[in-house]
Amino acid sequence: MTAARTGAAAGLSREEAARRLAEYGANAVARERRVPVWRRVLQQLRDPLILVLLVAAALTLATRDIPDATVILLVITVNTAVGVAQEIRAERAVAALSALSAPAARVVRDGTESSVPAAQVVPGDLVLLAEGDIVPADGEVLEAARLLVDESALTGESVPIEKAAAQGPSPPTVSPPTVSAQTGSPPTVAAHTVSAGTVVVRGRGRVRITGTGPHSALGRIAALMGTAPGPTPLQRRLARFGRVLAAATVALCALVLALGLVRGQPVELMVVAAISLAVAAVPESLPAVVTLALALGARRMADRRAIVRRLPAVETLGSVTVLATDKTGTLTEGRMAAEKLWTPQGEATATGVGYAPEGRVTRDGRTVTADGAPDLAALLGASTLCNDAALDPPPDDGTPWRAMGDPTEAALLAAGARLGLDRTALRRALPRVGEIPFDSARKRMTTVHRAPGGSLRVVCKGAPETVLRPTVLTDPPDTLSRAATHAEELARGGYRVLAVASADHDDARPRGPDTWETGLSLLGLVGILDPPRATSRTTIAACGHAGITPVLITGDHPLTARAIAARAGIAARADQVTTGERIRRGTAGDLTALRVYARTTPEQKLDIVQAWRAAGHVVAMTGDGVNDGPALRRADIGVAMGRRGTEVARQAADLVLADDNLATVVAAVEEGRRVYANVRRFLLYALAGGTAEILVMLLGPFLGMPLPLLPAQILWINLLTHGLPGVALGAEPVAPGVLRNPPRPPEESVLGAGLWPRLLAMGVFVAGVTLGAGVWALETGRPWQSLMFLVLGATQLGVALGSRARPGSLANPFLPAAVGTALALQVAGVYLPPLRALLGTQPLSLADLAIACVLSGLGHAVMRAQRRLFPERPPPAAPGA
Question: Cα dist. 567→492, 534, 686, 812 in Å?
Fold first, then answer.
């Protein structure tokens, strides 16, 4: 779909543009189809535990047990409604973010300039670009005047790229010079083309559109994201658990039914009892517990400015074993900073936040100013004069300072301001009277300024290999050698290096440009870098403590990638760094043995993520660019940046960080582990109670109790214990030290790590206490069935209190309140006449009530003792970590 070259300055006619719009379609990335509500509902109902509950509801309806069927269907309805509502809310929030990246475009049609929505741009359109514009589609540059384009969203390259016309000599432009070591690989995007979604940071140009919509670079990357996300680790664990539990429940209920019929019990009574046991064995509150825990995690994420697109994403982060992070704007600040300063007199470091002029310059551990460091003042003063950028102060809304023009030159201005230089005063005192703009062949820029006394000052800045030459400088050879050595050291450290020189001429008449770049004196070197975020090192360290392996995947240069990885705390030995070219040739070796992947394409990012997943890892991928989109979709969980993030990245992600703060990912890991811990906490409690009920029903007849509990009594206990108290367990706070252990292996059962023995032990204990109370009551002539009913429910509620993550705290006041309410209703089932008639119970004496309360206290004490005597085993280290 390449537009024909017409060369007509009038552009397309409006009629032709309309025809091409109909032929090629809108210039827009294909959005995910909106999932209809009925399909969302079906997806929620496919959960194995929900299917078990649906079968139980059908059986209770078949036996005309309307109250119990109503309770079961209510749990299913609430769980489904909450899950569907959360997905729809998240979709709307992401759509609101996506609307921010829907620019207009200036086109020439019928010889006149007009503004049209970017979606209406068609192949062959003549588009005008200016500073600040978002390129609406792929195109060929026809004219360029100092045109500089930020392609980091597409390629991962930190520094903007100079653009020139496709034919003929390109006009002089100013672009960030770089040391040769940093330009060893060609850019991903050609110098005479522009791509959709990139941003013009300076200059202007005319572009003939060659590709729109799915045929643009952005659209082709979006097409790689066709793979739908698979089930999360928790969903896989619960699916396996649900299948096992369903089979076990059917077998046990059949056994109870057969035993009752053998003893001569009525068929209808035993069928109801078997169904009641099925409902008791199935933790029907589990979906509600999971949903509540995930919803609370999503709410906490929203409080930290993170939008959860899919509820399971919160728990998935808790299972993550590998964090694959993008560099530009994710691990780094996404802006340039002039950090390292070198002059023949010594070194210094400039520090500050963003492009704000606030900060300081230090030398030998002491803060210096322009008055106290004349060599640094000369270096940064010259960098300020030979400069076409500007710093835009923030408005009153608290946004940061912005770079107007080339970010590299803006970094020089910020460093000069931090030394105490006044850019306005400098330019007023030394106005520019001539210049030789930067071009890609010379790799340097020179300006001429008139001094107050009438003399001239020439300033030159550029790549060290083009400035540190005897033909340009008059400095001694040893000075040039020291400067070249230091420039190479900075380059190996990932810095982009500029050399700055100047000379004063008494002759007030400007000489020819061919003499300006000779006879200069070296002022020094400036090392410029896109620095890591202040929180990056802390975040990466927290990942290490949590057993998560961090890796860096970027489209930037290997030296830059390795330097940033080292500064952020990612282990990056030379043998742990590879490039996309090596991956393409198949010479990179085992991808899971590496930690830094540089110069990667979107396809190679997919290969890297898939390699880690195939090795048994759960992979989280963070990114903000178009080139990150396919990997975000392929990863177990994709995390996109909301501010810098492109629409493609946000559509592909499960979690969108509205504040672009990587530290939020660690907070989400903690939330995910809290969710998983609470699910296991509930299962221990609920299945121990279900086990106790089944044991009571199986063993009671052998102890002289033909039918230990009536079906209505079982369902009442199940309703009270699995209801409010069970759901309240899903709101338990995070346990101390949760981030000091590695994540659970993805293949581990939800009841693994020693939970099965603890579950069975608690079930046997509760059943033993209940049967012991029943035998004692039977021998002493008390209403044994009512006492067993009260003891069984009260002891389970005591176990719920003993399951707290932080006993004695007010971190989850809902749980004690829920247990108290359930206990009151349990007691009411013995004393209130309407409930006694419904449940078939008899009133107990106060002494019997006190015994039941003491036994419930035993449930709490034994649960606490069990947690201390048999603590949960820490998970093993992840494979290959």
Answer: 13, 11, 48, 40
Backbone dihedral region of 110: left (phi > 0), alpha (psi from -120 to 50 degrees) or beta?
Answer: left
Which of 317, 326, 322 lies closest to 673 in space, CA to CA?
A: 317
Distance of alpha carbon 462 from alpha carbon 497, whole angstroms: 8
Rg (CA), the chain: 35
Facing residues of 209 across strands? 139
DSSP single-letter state for residue 363: E
State the DSSP string of 151-196: -HHHH--SS-EE---SSSPPPP-------GGGGSS--SS-TTEE-T
N residues, the chain: 881
Vertex 556: Cα angle to 553 and 561 (nearest 5): 65
Largest CA distance in the chain: 122
Q: Is the pLDDT of residue 94 over 60?
A: no
Predicted TM-score (pTM) of this structure: 0.70
Contact 181, 491 (CB under 8 A): yes
Residue 677 has pLDDT above 90, yes or no: no
- Tell me the per-residue pLDDT of 418-445, one tens digit each, with 9 for 90 and over: 999 998 899 999 999 988 887 766 788 9
What residues pair up with 338 in beta bridges, in sequence order?
528
Tokens coding 431 = 């106005």
Q: Distance between CA 794 and CA 218 in Å, rounded?
A: 61
Residue labelled with tokens 């759960």: 618
Tell me how far apart the terminal alpha carbons of the chain are, to the nearest angstrom: 46
Strand 577-579 vs strand 596-598: parallel, antiparallel, or unpaired?
A: parallel
Predicted confidence band at 31 (pLDDT cuts at 50, 70, 90)? low
H-run or E-run covering 408: helix 407-419
How far apart, in whole angstroms, are the C-alpha atoms of residue 29 and residue 462?
39
Burial bucket for residue 869 (CB in 10 Å: 0-12, 13-18, 19+)? exposed
Q: What would the pLDDT profile of 845-857 be if each residue is shown by its tens digit?
A: 988 889 888 888 8
Strands laid side by side in the 619-623 sheet: 306-308, 655-657, 637-641, 619-623, 322-325, 549-553, 596-598, 577-579
14-28 confidence digits (pLDDT tens): 899 899 988 888 887
From the list 271, 273, 316, 322, the residue with the least C-alpha distance to 297 is 316
Domains of the chain: 102-223 (2.70.150.10), 284-303+671-735+747-869 (1.20.1110.10), 318-332+534-660 (3.40.50.1000), 339-525 (3.40.1110.10)
Contact in structure between 582 and 845 (CB atoms under 8 Å): no
DSSP-derived secondary structure letter, 593? G
Active site residues: 326
